[in-house]
Amino acid sequence: MSISIPFRTLETIPRRIEQSYEPDFNLTDEETLTRMEAEIPNVPVKFWRSVEKKLHIMQKGGNCAQMPNIFELAFNNLVWQQVKTSKGTFYLYSAYFDIRPLSPAPTLRILSMIEQVEPTVPTFCQIWFENSTKPVIANVSQYRILWNKAWGTGNKIHPFSIECEVPSVNNKTVVPVAVSVVENSCDKASNLVKVTHRTLEPGKKKSIAVCVKRMQFVHEEPVFKLIEFLELVRVLGAEKVYLYAYEPQPNPRVERILRYYEAQGLLEVSRVTMPASRPNSPILRHLFFEKHGTLVYIHQMVSICDCIYKSFYQHDLVALIDLDEVIIPENGLTWREIIKNVTNGTGYSAITFNNAYYPLNNPKPENWNPGFPAEFPMLNTVYRLANYSKPGDYVKPFLNTSDVLIAHSHLPLGCIGPGCRRKDVPVSAGTWHHYRTDLKGEMKNQPSSDNTTVADYSLWKWKDELVKRATRAAKDLGYL
């Protein structure tokens, strides 16, 4: 089956990476503000600049709830804004305005890490709107934990959505531009978080996005792995990839790839760090995660939910996969086609695919000469374990942005309404390909200890297009 990929011909790729991203430091004021927004994306930089000269009147009255200057904000580890309360510290990452049709009320959802398992301190949202000098004050209605406490409480910090219902303005639903969280309603805040609300362009249909919740490389340089992954999900039907990279990201060759795909519009990179006093130098952070394994999963919940929330209105489905994974339909179908086939128009919260392990260290078939570069790991790995993982236990999903509220790497944890609706896709229709070097710790997901392998060339249905694109990108970047 031929695959139509709109605006994705090779001719649309920037000719050379040098022509597409090298920064120019001779900037206008507008360009400076744009660069600032990229550096501190959770701060409403342009809104602040528009009211900077009248900050003294940006208040409720009588010095109540005065808007802070961005030079007064309490930043923590680059990407977090800090709120100290009488019962612990909050670290705010991002804020989203939820007016999805299924949402019971217009709600601000502020993604955060909190040094409490069950925060009880009453707090308030100071909500700011364009063309208004007075904030609207709303009670924090809920601390929604983004985690199952039964899985562990690692290192005394937990992910939450801090939620405030947003009152109407003159009987209209108005999108806020910023929000501050405070313990007392009239406090001058130490935080000012930009409210993100990405609407769909007129005439454009919602598309499929990919969420890569964590990128952290210390002991490897995954140049070809990253290129192959990005080109493959594009061929399968992803219009956008949201990738969360731990900062600092120490590899300049990887950074070059990220900027290359950002320049094309395929990739959006969000920088993440560990909040509070936890380490953020790459090697020490890696060792810290090895010692505090549960904390890895706790922390990445903010990235997962951030990706879902930013996709509310532009994407109807998001695939939660890592760089060593891909969901492959059978019969050469695209992602959109396989989802249409298996759902029959039913709006499931999650469409899940069972796991198939592809050991990267398996020998190649005899006389292996596939006619494409040996550096691309997925294309060059055709043996998988004969047994799929236990049905329903170990899956990867497409999530429906219309109702999902919370999700972890494999399934939704909470949805708007009575519950999350799940559709398990049979392996005859499609599987989750999982490429791993060491399977010792993974065999618990298998129905038995049998590690017999079989050849599976299902990914090769996209081989010609993938090889063309990945090779072109690697040459553009100077890596082939």
TrEMBL record:
Short name of one Pfam family for this protein? Glyco_transf_92
Its record classes its membrane topology as: Single-pass membrane protein
Keyword Transferase present in the record's keywords: the answer is yes
Gene Ontology cellular component list: cytoplasm; membrane
As for subcellular location, the record says: Membrane
What family is this?
Belongs to the glycosyltransferase 92 family.
Q: What is this protein called?
A: Glycosyltransferase family 92 protein
